[in-house]
Amino acid sequence: MNSSNMERFATRTGVILVVSGSAVGLGNFLRFPGLAAKYGGGLFMIPYFISMLLIGITVCWCEWTLGRYGGERGYNSSPGIFRAVSGRRGGQYFGIVALLIPIIIYMYYVYIESWCLGYAWYYLCGVFNSGPFATGEAVDYKNFFANHVGMGENGSVLADGLNATVVCLLIAFAINFYLIYRGLSKGIETFCKIAMPALIFAAILVLIRVLTLGTPNPELPEQNVSNGLGFMWNLKLPEGVTFWSWDNPLTDPEMWLEAAGQVFFSLSVGFGIVLTYSSYLRRKDDVVLSGLSASSTNVFCEVCLGGLITVPAAFIFLGPERVTEVAGSSIGLGFFTLPDVFERMQFGPLVGFVWFFLLFLAAVTSSISMLQPAIAFLEEGFNLGRRASVSILGLITVFGAFLVVYFSKDLIALDTMDFWVGTFLIFILGLIMVILFGWVIGIEKGMNEAHRGAHLRIPKVFNVIIKYVCPLYLVVIFILFIWKKIYVGYAEEGSYVYNLLNHPDVHITVGFVAILAVFLGLMIYLAGKRWDQLRPIKEGEEI
Amino acid sequence: MDTSGWIFLLGSVVSVTALTFFCFSRVFSLPPSEEEDLHGPLDIETGEED
Question: Within a domain: residue A166?
């Protein structure tokens, strides 16, 4: 038995905190409030909650169940789990997508994580409240951020050698790989058990500060807490449009697309991460209550904390125009607007430090989870030890992160990876898992499998939702996605498809992703040969 | 903030908080999983095939 087979979570709470830790990240505190503000405040909550119910919770239960099913059959990696679930050798190649997604996302996510660490450090050592920043003059945080990440020119971050950006990135890398090297229980689970309560506590502190701001500038009485919350939550309809009319923004497919994308990104379903984590569960460990608990923790952080902090705080200090400018842009809201808010707030430097440190913790709990699927594959596919697996994955991710850092002009490499892998492929993997659960295993057997050891029953209506509604919803959303984001305006300069065809930096980035996909395919082929000897399967055998 | 804002805010926050508390109250009221493995009735071998 190799080491990966012996790994287990120490406690039930531990597994819930690890999975919710992988889900709670920057999307909860930056992306969600920005999208809600962009799409009519309270109105956005309607497609958001419908998507959460129809695809979020549904794919989550499927992924937990498939993972435990594969784990029982001795597989902890997504290629192995897909092989076991499909009962065919060919099924293991779905694992290319399931391995590629977390590895590629890690390469740019760790860079964003290092910005949070850098900003927390700047607040702690007084960079943002001393020297030129203490003059009371307006600070160009946009310019500051552009210099920090090298948006002006490719390679500018690396040109100065060991500057703050590079040091923060190295620290973030070291923390991630130290935790992953410590293993599932001693590293990831132990860290999440401390970090998750700590980040929720820090978020509550910032929330209390925001909700007690009152009207900080008496000259602008309309910029107060109540109106800030209203900007985020009021049902905003265009003039002359009622909730029941046909031109209601709810009929805009883009809003549904964004809501579905937010649910996927935020819950980390369709990433292949939950698949690996749940494979470490015991045969009769619960997956239904655990999956729902992890999802609800994530939604709590998103709606009850993220939804009450970011946009209201920005509104109170900067007014509706500035918030509207950056609504929909996580980076704009997080790294240009909020530092400006903290500068004007009493105890702003302290709140700024707590805020960026909580973002850093949230990002670490997510990024360590992105490494585990590949580690599990290297361990069980090639019988490698922890040290060898961590070293190989370290080399691959360092190279990918180097590309992200080097091609920093307009963050082109980061944006390209985020679109083609972090958005496009996630829909595909989500769809694969729902079809495997509802159609390959079969809905009755799938539900029986989910209910083994469950402390909660999945309502019967989910039989229909998983088998028909969810795949149909995903296909419709996916077609809309291709139509809106790829087909319409594909020839427009700067669009994703235009860049794919014409931009040399994008060619290199996408070429790297393609080479990695081929490499993973070869690795899965070799691992499959080994599994054929160890655990042969009969083609087409009934599951 | 108008009435619609309060409805969406309170509706969302109360329902999500209630769901989270419900889930964790169920999780914390369960016996430790090791104990379950040793004493749980589901551990009886039924001969069922998966």
Answer: yes
CA-CA distance, A137 to A154, in Å (whole number)? 30
pTM value is: 0.88
**Per the structure, how many domains does chain A have?**
1
Q: Residue B17: exposed, middle, or buried by beta-carbon count in 10 A (0-12, 13-18, 19+)?
A: middle
Angle (CA) A516 A518 A524, round 5°:
100
Query: Per-residue pLDDT for B36 more than 50?
Result: no
At A506-526, the pLDDT tens digits run 999 999 999 999 999 999 999
Confirm or reject contact between A330 and chain B (CB < 8 A): no
Query: Given the structure tokens 């909860």, which residue do they identify?
Result: A28
Asked whether residue A393 is assigned to any structural domain, the reply reads: yes
Residues of chain A in contact with residue B4, where contact means CB-CB under 8 angstroms, are: 42, 234-235
d(CA A200, CA A195): 9
Domain-located, residue A397: yes
The residue of chain A nearest to residue B16, with distances taken between CA atoms, is A300
Measure in Å the smallest separation between the Cα of B28 and chain A Cα atoms. Answer: 8
pLDDT digits (tens, 9 = 90+) for A161-195: 889 999 999 999 999 999 999 888 888 888 998 99
Least confident of A53-67, A230-244, A340-354: A230-244
- The total number of residues shown for chain B amounts to 50
Confidence tier at A427 by pLDDT (50, 70, 90): confident
Long-range pairs of A10-14 with CB within 8 A, sequence gap ≥ 24 = A10/A185, A10/A189, A11/A189, A11/B32, A11/B33, A12/A285, A12/A286, A12/A290, A12/B27, A12/B30, A12/B32, A12/B33, A13/A193, A13/B27, A13/B28, A14/A185, A14/A189, A14/A192, A14/A193
In a domain, A540, yes or no: no
Q: What local confidence, expressed as pLDDT, does residue A47 receive?
A: 92
How many angstroms separate the CA of residue A21 from the nearest CA in chain B? 15
Query: Once rounded to an integer, what is the mean pLDDT over residues A6-18?
Result: 79
Q: Which of B4, B8, B23 sits opposite A289 (nearest CB)?
A: B23
Q: How confident is the model at residue A543 (pLDDT cuts 50, 70, 90)?
A: very low
Res A495: pLDDT: 80
CB contact under 8 A, B6 and A453: no
Alpha helix positions (H), A87-159:
95-124, 141-149, 156-159
Hey, are the CB atoms on B1 and A307 less than 8 Å from each other?
no
Range of the domain at A474: 3-534
Residues 6+ apart with CB under 8 A from A84: A69, A70, A73, A75, A537
Task: Provide the CATH number for the domain around residue A347.
Answer: 1.20.1740.10
